[in-house]
Design a protein that fits this description.
The complex is a heterodimer of chains A (79) and B (216). Chain A is mainly alpha-helical. Chain A has 4 helices and 2 strands. In chain A, helix 1 runs antiparallel to helix 2 and helix 2 crosses helix 3. Chain B contains 7 helices and 10 strands. Chain B has a 6-stranded mixed β-sheet. A 3-stranded antiparallel β-sheet of chain B has the order 4-5-6. Chain B has 216 residues and is α/β, with parallel strands linked by helices. Classes of the chains: A mainly alpha (79), B alpha/beta (216). Chains A and B meet through strand 1, helix 3 and helix 4 of A and helix 1, strand 4, strand 9, helix 6 and helix 7 of B. Strand 1 of chain A pairs antiparallel with strand 9 of chain B, so a sheet runs across the interface.
């Protein structure tokens, strides 16, 4: 299931820049079936636009949507 | 069906080792409540053995730790242990928690078709967590991983404590919101946005199928 990305090169570049600038090297992310990914591996997956890369980009975009739509704060305000 | 816990404990990469390590809290709660417990490990994490164990032990609560696909969940390495159209019906009347990517997309609804008292809690998105490489040999001290795995533990722990499936589902989601709130209120570190994204992903992706009132 190694589908290719429909995600634009521009968005990929933004996500890569963000990971590169902000993610500490001691962190690893567990996502999908490929075990845990280092910062460099995350960047590589996004660059290739493979399944993990698409998941990383989608996670980022979904969060932005949740913030801008007010969904995140609305949900937190239910506490 | 018996009040028991059947839990898969793969440990073949960092991700699965963490899931299994953090499952200790689930098993401890089951011990406290005197539940029967069956841990399935390593070489037994294949479809044949898993199906035989399910056939033999009618334990109500089943917890999967592992990598997942929309229609299936992995056990040890590349071994699929449950798959739609093969052995998913063995889950029909159980309370299932799948701490695995995407298995809520198809497996969750399929295995709970026409259930009377079963439920499935899982994810329609990848289940994501971060870990601190400094602590991979001693995950207990990994405060980063706790952010994600403690809320997810609340699904089975709530069930073991006697809550309904819907309450367990909500308890876990509520804890994720609390963790996000705490991250937003406290001093923002450069990595905080990554944690928020992953918590929101798990929050947004967690679903429930079957009988909401199902309990042990």
């Amino acid at each position: 299931m190694k589908e290719k990305s429909e995600i634009s090169e521009e968005i990929k570049k933004l996500v890569i820049a963000r990971i590169d600038a902000r993610m500490p090297s001691n962190l690893k992310m567990s996502i999908g079936a490929s075990g845990s990914l280092s910062k460099e591996e995350m960047i590589e997956h996004v660059r290739k636009g493979d399944e993990e890369g698409v998941q990383i980009v989608n996670m980022h975009l979904n969060f932005i949507k949740a913030v801008t739509s007010g969904d995140l704060i609305r949900e937190i305000n239910t506490l | 069906m018996q009040k028991g816990l059947l839990i898969t404990c793969p440990e073949y990469d960092d991700g699965t080792s963490y899931l299994t390590y953090f499952s200790k809290a689930i098993v401890e709660e089951a011990i406290n409540k005197s539940l029967k417990i069956k841990k399935i490990k390593d070489e037994n994490l294949n479809m044949k053995d898993f199906s035989e164990i399910m056939e033999k032990l009618d334990y109500k609560l089943v917890v999967f730790n592992g990598h997942g696909l929309p229609d299936s969940i992995y056990g040890h390495k590349g071994n699929i242990i449950v798959k739609v159209g093969e052995n998913d019906k063995q889950l029909k009347e159980r309370i299932v928690y799948a701490r695995a990517c995407n298995a809520g997309l198809l497996l969750g609804s399929e295995c709970m078709k026409e259930t009377k008292s079963g439920s499935f809690i899982g994810y329609v998105l990848p289940f994501v967590f971060f870990m601190d490489e400094k602590w991979t040999t001693n995950p207990h001290n990994d405060k980063v991983a706790w952010l994600f795995l403690e809320p997810s533990n609340l699904v089975p722990i709530s069930i073991i404590k006697g809550h309904t499936s819907l309450e367990a589902h909500k308890n876990a989601k509520r804890q994720m919101l609390k963790n996000m709130e705490s991250l937003l209120k406290n001093k923002q570190e450069q990595e905080t946005p990554f944690y928020l994204e992953a918590l929101w992903n798990n929050y947004d992706g967690q679903i429930i199928f079957g009988d909401n009132s199902a309990k042990l």
